[in-house]
Prior knowledge:
Distance between the termini: 129 Å
Radius of gyration: 45 Å
Number of strands: 7
Number of helices: 6
Amino acid sequence: MNKDCNIVNDLLPLYVDDVLSADSKQFVEEHLSSCDNCKDQLDKMKADITTLPKDNDTKPFKKIKRKLITRLILIVVLAAALLVGWVFVWTTYIPVKYIGEQFYADMDVVFMDDGAYLRRDNLCSRGDVIISYIDNDKENGVIGLYIAESVPDHFRLGWYESTCYTKISNDLIVPEKIKQVVYTDKNGNPLQTLWEKE
């Protein structure tokens, strides 16, 4: 091997990739036409390139794509579940939002065979009815009550009931002794008389 062979061997990879300048390419081709050793070297190099396996494996990309799609679907499903949950909680746990004429008009005291009940229409006052005796008023036949803002009635009474009845008489005060039913605040301060014995 002479000096030109060493130079051509250094240039052969660039020649195979076809990135040589025109002058360098001409130099390599002139040398290859007269040098069998460098020509053999070029043939080996081309043979090695053709035997390299082509990397057409798209499985890793398909896996990444599948993971991204799965995550996207999961995010959409979770977002939908959160939205449905939020709507359910919002429409279910509606607290007492207003205390006005309609609020009181939707409540009435009803006496049935097994006791006294607070009747409520339109579920305008969702929540547990809490009996709150004012001082010793139970001895005088006065029931104070208010509506807690936590547990909705329709968990107990069904989804579509527009009127619900909650028993307010008990062992401490029987229906015959009730003289007055008063709606109070949570501290027991009277706000509205719901029923009064004539």
